[in-house]
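Session log. Operator J.P. requested a structure for one protein chain; no other inputs attached. Running the standard single-chain path with token output.
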Amino acid sequence: MYLVLKSTVAAGQRINAGNVVELSDDVARALLAMGRVEAAPVKPKASPVVADRSVALEASDTPVVAKRGRGKRNED
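Structure written below.
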């Protein structure tokens, strides 16, 4: 996997800067020498975070959402 630094054409396809692409060894070696790509950093896979999205239920920890509305007319 390689990070494209400058837009270029490789293997008959246009690849834009910022994309992460997989290239063959000979194409990658040539583009590395020209400074058009660099090896993409390997990111460790993050464990999925479970989010509690419930609102105003018995099991919910979040406060009740305040609804906007018109105030009462004769509020004295």
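Operator note: The chain has a mean pLDDT of 83.
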